[in-house]
Each structure stands twice: as C-alpha cells, then as structure tokens.
Amino acid sequence: MYEILEKKEIAAKNVMYKIHAPHIAKKVQPGQFVVVRAFENGERVPLTPVTWNRKEGWITLVVFSRGKTTLRMNMELKEGDKILNIAGPLGNPAPMKRFGKILAIGMITGIVEVYPIAKAWQELGNEVITLHIVPEPMILLREELENAVSRHIVESFPLKEGMGMPEIFKELVTRGQAKVKELIEVEKPDLIFMVGPAGGQKAIFDVVKEYGVPMEVDLHPIMVDGTGMCGACRVTIGGEVKFACVDGPSFDAYEVNWEELIARSGFYTDLEKRAMEDYLAKLAQGGVQ
Amino acid sequence: MMAIIKERIPTPERLIEERLQGFMEVNLGYTFELALQEAQRCLQCNPAPCIQGCPVHIDIPGFIKKLRENKEDPKKAVKEALEVIWACNTLPAITGRVCPQEDQCEAPCVMGKVGEPINIGKLERFVADYAREQGIDEELLQEIIPKIEKKKEKVAIIGAGPAGLTCAAELAKDGYQVTIFEALHKPGGVLVYGIPEFRLPNDTIEKELEKLKKLGVEMKTDYIVGRTVTLDELLENYDAVFIGTGAGTPKLPSLPGINLNGIYSANEFLTRVNLMKAYAFPEYDTPIKIGKKVIVIGAGNTAMDAARTARRLGAEVVIAYRRGKEDITARIEEVEHAKEEGVTFEFFLSPMEFIGDENGRVKAVKFMKMKALEERDSKGKRKIVPTGDTTVLEADTVVIAIGKTTSKLLRMTMAKIEADEYGVIKVDEKLMTNIPGVFAGGDAIRGEATVILAMGDGRKAAKSIKEYLEKKANNT
C-alpha cells in the first residue's frame, strides 16, 4: 500500500500525485515506468514517474483521466488514501549520452514522460529543446520544463465549443507537423525524441523522416503485466516482434511498424467507452462512493 | 479380507449447463463418506510404487491409512492424514487439484493393473479441503508453530509461484527467515494468473498462502527482482537466494499476422480473465474481447484452460493441434471436461498464417494439414510432416497456447547467472547455480514443466539451502 502524500489538479483532466513508494524512488531512472493498480477491481495502468526523491522515498505521477480506472483515481482518491499496488521501475532507462542538440516532443500528456528524460539529457550537456503540442486547457509542466531545458516551446490552441476528439487530434497533428518542420529547418537537431499517442507519433515521424533526422520514440501499446509475461504490448520493430515492456519502451521510429501499433492501440476503445459510460451513469445516480 | 472394488468412487461434478454460466469449480470433491470408500480400495502396498511416482514422495499409503484408521472420527482421521501429507507437501489443496496424477502417483498404482488406480489426487484434495473447512489445518499449524526453532539466517525467494512457495514453506518450517519477492500484485504465480478458477479457485490459493504467512513467510508483492531490487543487493542482505521465476514469456510463432488484433497469448488471455477478472467487466475495469468463434492453438493444459475459459465467455471454441489425438499433452480430466463443455478438436493442423480484416482484426487462420509418420521423435511422439493441403478456419479470436520460455527480464538483469541459450538456468545436482548461495528450481531450470515438479524442486532446493547454510555456519 502506497500513501498519497499530495494530490493536485495541474491541468484539465490531469492530476499530480506525490506517493510514498520508497522501493521505486530508490531505483527509478528517466525513461522507466511503473504499473499502478489503484483499486481491487481497477486495471493495471502503466504510468511514468515525473520526479522522485530517493532519500524521502516518494515519486510523483501525473494521471490523465483517460479511461475508467484513471478517471476513478482522479475522482475518488484523496490525500492520505492508499494506492493498492505500484510495481516498478519497469522498462529500460533512456540512454544517457551526449547526442548534441535534441528536440524532445511531447504530444498532450506525452510531455510527462519527456520531462525527466529531457531534464537528464540537458544536465548531461546536451542542448535540449522541448516542444509540447497540446490543447490549451491541458498545458502541463510548463514552468518545470522552462527551468530544466535550453528552450521550451508550447504549441497550443484553445478548445472550441463542440470540438470532438477527431477535430482536436487533427489540429494537434497539423500544428505539430508545421512546428516540427520549422524547428528541424531552423535548429537542425541531431536527435528527435517523441512521446504521445501512436497516431500523433506517426504523424510527426512522417515529417521527420523527410529530413532523415534520427528519431527515438517511447511507445505505449496496451499493457497488462508490464514484466514480459503476457505479450499484450508486442510491437514489430524492424520486422521483429518485441515486447515494449521489456525491450522498450524506447525504439527507433524508423523501425516501428506504425500501422500495426495504431491498430493494436485501438482494440479496446469501444469497451473502454462502455466502462466509462457505465461508471458515469452510476456516478450520476450516486451509486459510487 | 474385503472384496476388491475395481472401479474408483467418482467425485461429484457440477452440471455442464451450470458450469458454462460462470467460473465456479467444476469438480466438487469427495465427502468424507465417499473419500472413505475410495480409501478402502487402497492395497497398502509395501514398498509403495505410488510414493516413487510422486515427485515430492508423499507417503500416500500412509495418509490413506490414517483416513481409514479413524473412520469413526473424521476430524482425527483428516488431521492425522494431513500431518502425513504436510511432511512433504504444504500445499495439498493445490496439488490435489492440478497435479497430473495419472502420469505420476496413480500411474504405477497396483490397483490400476486389476481395475482403476486409487484416486489419489482427489483424496489429497479431500484431506486439504476438509481440514480447511473444519479448521483442522489451523489447529495443526498452531501445534507446529511453537515448536519451530527460529534461526537467524535469512533467505530470499524470487517468485511466488509453486517452486518459490514450496521452498519458502519448507525453510519456514525449519525456522529460517524467509522473504518472497513477487513481481505481480498477488502471490501465486501461474496458480493465480494462469490456472482458471473453475479448476483452482483463487480463494483456495489465498487460504493456502495464509498458512505460509502464519509460518512467518514475508511476501513482498510489486517487487521485480532485477529492477526494484538487484540480485547483488539480495546477496548482501540475505544468506541464500532461491530463483523460482518460472517460464513466463509466451512463445509466439513467427507467422504472418501474429500481431493482428484478437490474437492473444494464452498468458494474456488467462491473466485478463483470472488475475484481472475480465469476465466481470465492466464491474472490473480490465476488458477482454472475444468474438463468436475462438481457435485455441495447442493441446496442453494451458490450451484446455483457455478453451474452457472462452466457452464460459460465450464463444464457440475449436482446439487446433498440429499432432494427433494420442499426443495431447493435457491431463485426461481436463480434455474430458473441455469436450463435455462443447469444445471441439481439430487434429493435424499447423498454423501457417493469420488472416485479418480491414481493421487489423483477425478473421481466419490458414492451416497446413499434417500427417503422422510411423517414425518417432526423441520424445517418443510420431513425427509429423506437411501434406501440402491447406485449410482455412474462421475465427474472431485466436489464443496461442504453444508454450512458454523463461523470463526475459531475468536474462536481462541477472546476466551473471549461467543459463543456456534459451535462458534456462544451469544448476548442479543440489540445484545451486554458478553463484554460491543462489539456487534455482521450477520452470526457470526446466523450461516448461508442471506445478508439482516445480514444487519438488522447491522442496529439494530448501534441503540444499539448509545444508549450505549449516555448512556456512559451521565454517564461521
């Protein structure tokens, strides 16, 4: 059981938790993730520690209300409550090398995962530019990134009434692609790194590959155990089947089979929607404590 | 001398229609009266071949005798029988349910030569269940615990599966301080993520594990050895280590379309249903997607478990196996149950390709038709060759149950441990690895085997660990 030491909403649908988890705080490296099971009937959710304190034994996580479990976490958990399970750190740490000039991109909540890696790369002597492609209400970690890297850019737009997910996504992609094109031409980065939804990563990669700039991506396929046991997170990399949880999460964008990844990521969308609607209906009836 | 009863006393089973409504246990187990009738059939051979057939050498005639001796006092009978079993096996409610008894203790049973062998597995299970229901195991535990002489040595166990749990229990009974490190949120390993509740209820596992906790075993879940804590750190803080990480990585054939949606490894499929209770979605948040037609590839116990699970989720299920009927590796009972529940079998079909629809979801599987030759392979199975003919079966879900390999995470994070090219850990006859004080057992050293063999290793390793620690204590 892991106590929530602090909880605060840091952007629309995004809640930051400071959690007592000494076994993870002691070991976690930038690029690694944890698997959280908050409730007895909740899913196992992979999340990224944003900051941590090895001495005091805590980590922070940002939870985006994306599905039922994450929405429940954000609605129901309070400071002082306990999270049932947090396992980790999992996945391989990001390579800590001098690449030169790095453009690190986070689309929507992808920036959460970019932050610890970008910060570490900057500290290592790289020149890091971070780009956050995001609708305005969901701008996150702006100040933190401004303090951590050479230059932080937010490419955002206000959400208009009646804008559905497809329109928002289209706007993110259009703006993101234009901005990345501009940054490649002006800044000439040696490496591009990106975290975000698979469709967004693919869209940005389509621009990057025109210029042939090396690109690394942290992938987020559907995951269950996170330790290489179930194979839910399998992705095809350079024609070979890899498990994102133990072989990744970072891969060469040029090697990723994007169509497959995008198709696999959307497999449960209808059921996720059903679970969410079911939960919201119960909530409306006052049926959930 | 009583007349020999050739047929075994059957155990009551849940009705088929009722089984398909949920995940309730299928076999209902003996009552005391039925168990006693079955126990009466035992010839009490000496030497007893059944003991040799049991990987942990339980004194089978011994516990059966205890049941018969005290037939007027069921509680006493069960307590004494349990005591005999516990001397070799602390988890009889589990082994009584999942051991392949027909290939082990029951195979050489003398009764089997004149009729049906003694139903040893079900008797073992009866003793365990009855003891639990009547609080007899608790009583026995309370008698044992005060007699345990606490030792100062600490042992770390990696993995809370059958091997690790058995090793832990044996060491705890001898007073060692044992800590189990488990990566998942629940201890049990394959028992909780892999074996469905209709065969082994999670509640039964939990009760068996409570016993271990009472014996003083500490269980740390959410701990991934190699990541959360390294092997070197364990070696600094513990006097010996046992690796019982099993064979957790699913084998997936390198065939076109393997990553289509709707194709599950048996591990993922069973984990979603057993561990995460996807059958109760959306009450439980983890979903599972199953269509009308499911093909399970493979014919081991895992394949039967997946097929029967899919039946309970409402699908039509076909098991496709590349060999013939005689080479099915699953237990007979499981195959029979699968058939009763409406699972159909297709033999001599080897998958060639998974065919998807425009959304990337599987819609069919193309198979090569195989045929068997008279010639046999190293495992004694008839060799199979392609006929050149192919066939296509429709499916909206495919479960791959063709086996597992050792944990990749283990290979990645414990490179100092000597292993073969498949990651199977090398051990000596004492089950010690190349690192002094580090022992291993179960599927981690076997590649892939059964629960009871893993338990046998756990027990053997516990003995070796004791010897190792005693020797170390004497040298210092």
Automatic annotation (TrEMBL), chain A:
GO molecular function: 2 iron, 2 sulfur cluster binding; flavin adenine dinucleotide binding; metal ion binding; oxidoreductase activity
Entry keywords, A to Z: 2Fe-2S, Iron, Iron-sulfur, Metal-binding
Iron-sulfur listed as a keyword: yes
InterPro entries hit by this protein: Cyt_c3_hydrogenase_gsu (IPR012165), Dihydroorotate_DH_Fe-S-bd (IPR019480), FAD-bd_FR_type (IPR017927), FNR_nucleotide-bd (IPR039261), PyrK_electron_transfer (IPR050353), Riboflavin_synthase-like_b-brl (IPR017938)
Pfam families xref list: DHODB_Fe-S_bind
Chain sites annotated for binding [2Fe-2S] cluster: C230, C233, C245
Protein name, entry field: Sulfide/dihydroorotate dehydrogenase-like FAD/NAD-binding protein
Domain FAD-binding FR-type: 1-96
Essential cofactor(s): [2Fe-2S] cluster
Annotated GO biological process: pyrimidine nucleotide biosynthetic process
Keyword hit for Chaperone: no
PANTHER family linked to this entry: DIHYDROOROTATE DEHYDROGENASE B (NAD(+)), ELECTRON TRANSFER SUBUNIT, DIHYDROOROTATE DEHYDROGENASE B (NAD(+)), ELECTRON TRANSFER SUBUNIT-RELATED
Cofactor remark from the record: Binds 1 [2Fe-2S] cluster per subunit.
TrEMBL record, chain B:
Keywords: Oxidoreductase
GO MF annotation, one: iron-sulfur cluster binding
Enzyme class: oxidoreductase
EC number: 1.4.1.13
One Pfam match: Pyr_redox_2
Ranges of residues in domain FAD/NAD(P)-binding: 154-458
Domain Dihydroprymidine dehydrogenase intervals: 21-135
InterPro entries according to UniProt: DPD_II, FAD/NAD-bd_sf, FAD/NAD-binding_dom, Helical_ferredxn, SudA-like
NCBIfam families reported in the protein's UniProt record: gltA
Protein name, as recorded: NADPH-dependent glutamate synthase
Record organism: Thermococcus argininiproducens
Gene name tied to this protein: gltA
